[in-house]
Write a structure and sequence with these properties.
- Two copies of one chain form a homodimer.
- The first copy, chain A, has 189 residues and is an alpha+beta fold.
- Chain A contains nine helices and eight strands.
- In chain A, helix 8 packs across helix 9.
- The longest helix of chain A is centred in the last third of the chain and has 25 residues.
- Chain A is globular, with a radius of gyration of 18 Å.
- Chain A binds a DNA duplex (30 and 30 nucleotides) through helix 9.
Chain lengths: 189, 189
Amino acid sequence: MSELERYIQSYFGVTQEDLALISSYFERVTLKKGEHYLRAGQHADRLGFVQSGIVREYVQVGDREVTKWISTQGYFVVDLASFLFDRPARWNIHALTDVELYVIKKQRYRQIADAVPRWPELEKLFIARCFTVLEDRVVTHLSMTAEERYQQLFQFNPSLFNTVPLQYLASMLGMTPETLSRLRKRAGA
Amino acid sequence: MSELERYIQSYFGVTQEDLALISSYFERVTLKKGEHYLRAGQHADRLGFVQSGIVREYVQVGDREVTKWISTQGYFVVDLASFLFDRPARWNIHALTDVELYVIKKQRYRQIADAVPRWPELEKLFIARCFTVLEDRVVTHLSMTAEERYQQLFQFNPSLFNTVPLQYLASMLGMTPETLSRLRKRAGA
DNA sequence: CAAACTTCTTGATTTATGTCAAGCGGACGC
DNA sequence: GCGTCCGCTTGACATAAATCAAGAAGTTTG
């Protein structure tokens, strides 16, 4: 059972047959460190699942890059607005390490619904979960200081701070690299 | 055609028959100014649609209230995690004016899917739209100053600043009432 | 292996925003 | 109509975080 299948199983709770069917629709894609999987302005016509490696989603704002999210094993990577609504992608998606993905094209993705009748319902629940995670993230920014946001992320996933360049974590937390560096020093002391 | 029907029509593009059917599942509820529609910890077993009036969604954080969103005509109000996943509500939902809602109970809501086969798909797309709006809101907090966030909201919906107490808008924008007051003064001058 | 980049840290300083406190003014009840 | 309350503004000050600049540490490249 691949990581993808394990993930679909745990989140969507489908049968073994459906599981094999769904995962057969994906194809394996590898990215070299530094390679782009998607660039803003393109059409995101495929959905990726991170099997291994680290992927960064960012948006160019003026002369700086704002990291929206870092995806590691078990995350899907996509520009959802582009994928579902055929709009130009807003996010750049970029490999921070060598990456293995399972990827499904939009056209094939649509066929899942035919093969698995409950799929739209499962998919709805999945997206709703993502929505509620983002709701929390917004509240985080409305109610916490930079230090509290750092502490929260560190407690949730300390290993990120070994594996991901700190400048990207700082951006994702909404602070400068200098500030993150100082918070880390303070927390460590 | 009610505002609710117009809204469902424009977003979900269903037939006249489906439209009438769906809207018949809702019932009209009114709230007095200051009344709570939902309190954190309760189970949100109903979904509301704002027909008129202004509704505030907030969360208690320590000794202060953080306003997550202000809903006016055309918005749905619900704690989605509670409604879909039967978890205790995290948001308080509170009438800032007298409010007219159309409300549907979860049990009846489930019946829509039986009556309108395309419903799970439509619902998925609707939630996905909400998700992408929140994605933008997160990026807003990662990349903009308090002043830029104020400008953005003011340009998007200036009338909010006449109709909603500024303290709540300040909270929703992630700043103090004093800061919002000063930004408004500066922008006006 | 050394040079050239990156990335991170650290210090000095500036700026944006928060906090505290006082006062103004409109809305509401009596 | 007058006091009271509530929401907003304003000022003085404190603090968090950004910016600018330099240097250290680690990595990649030739």
